[in-house]
C-alpha cells in the first residue's frame, strides 16, 4: 500500500503497489481504498445465509455480490451483463503509462459439472462460481489466482487492514449500509 497524502501530509487514500518475488510488479488502483472497503462489505453481505445471493447459490463458497453494470441507472438503457462480470479492475494511472503497463482485476466465472446419479438414474448439474484475480506487470507477465468467496473476502479484508496500517482508515465504510456509505471527516485537504 502506498498512501495518497494531502498537502499537509495526512493519508486519505491508497494506491496498490504489486510485488512479485520481492520485486516491483506495478502500481495500480490510484485512490482505490474506498472502493476496496465497499467491495469488502458487499462480499461479506453476499456470503451471509438469507442474503439474496444465498437463494441462488446454496454453497457459501459460490456467493459473490453481483457487479453493478457500468450503465446502471441510465434511463432507457438495458443493463449489459458480461459472461465474466468484473468485480474490479485497477490499472496504472500515470500520464506516461502505455496500454498494459500494469493491471489488477477480478472477474467472476461460473462453471457447471455434471454429477452422475447412481446407476442409470440420471444426475444433476453442479454450478460453482469463483473469483479469478489476475495481476499483470509492466513487463507483460501475469499471475492468476482462483478464489472462493471466502478467500476473496479474506484477501480484500487484508488489503483494507493494510490501508489502515499506512493511515487510510475505512472502518466507517465497512460498518455503514451500502446506501449511506460515506467517509468520516478526516481533516485531510484533498489535493486534486
Name the descriptors:
single chain; 192 residues; alpha+beta; 4-stranded antiparallel sheet; 4 helices; 22% helix; 31% strand
Sheet bearing the most strands, described?
4 strands, antiparallel
What order do the strands of the largest sheet run in, or round the barrel if closed? 4-5-6-7
> What separation lies between the terminal Cα atoms?
20 Å
Distinct helical segment count = 4
What is the molecular shape?
globular
Q: Low-confidence spans: pLDDT under 50, at least 5 residues? A: 179-192
Averaged pLDDT? 82
Total count of strands: 7
Name the beta content range: 25-35%
Structural category is alpha+beta
Helical content class: 10-25%
H/E element string?
EEEHHEEEEHH
Q: Compute the CA-based radius of gyration.
A: 19 Å
Task: Describe the structure concisely.
The protein is built from 4 helices and 7 strands. The chain has 192 residues and is of the alpha+beta class.
Question: Topology of this protein?
Answer:
Layout: E1 2-5, E2 11-20, E3 23-28, H1 33-47, H2 52-56, E4 86-91, E5 103-116, E6 123-136, E7 142-147, H3 149-165, H4 171-175
Antiparallel strand pairs: 1-2, 2-3, 4-5, 5-6, 6-7
Helix pairs in contact: 1-3
Folded structure, characterized:
By secondary structure, this protein is of the alpha+beta class. The protein contains four helices and seven strands; from the N terminus they run βββααββββαα. It has helices at 33-47, 52-56, 149-165, 171-175, and strands at 2-5, 11-20, 23-28, 86-91, 103-116, 123-136, 142-147. The strands form two sheets. A four-stranded antiparallel beta sheet has the order 4-5-6-7. β5 (103-116) and β6 (123-136) form a beta hairpin. The model is unreliable at 179-192 (pLDDT under 50).
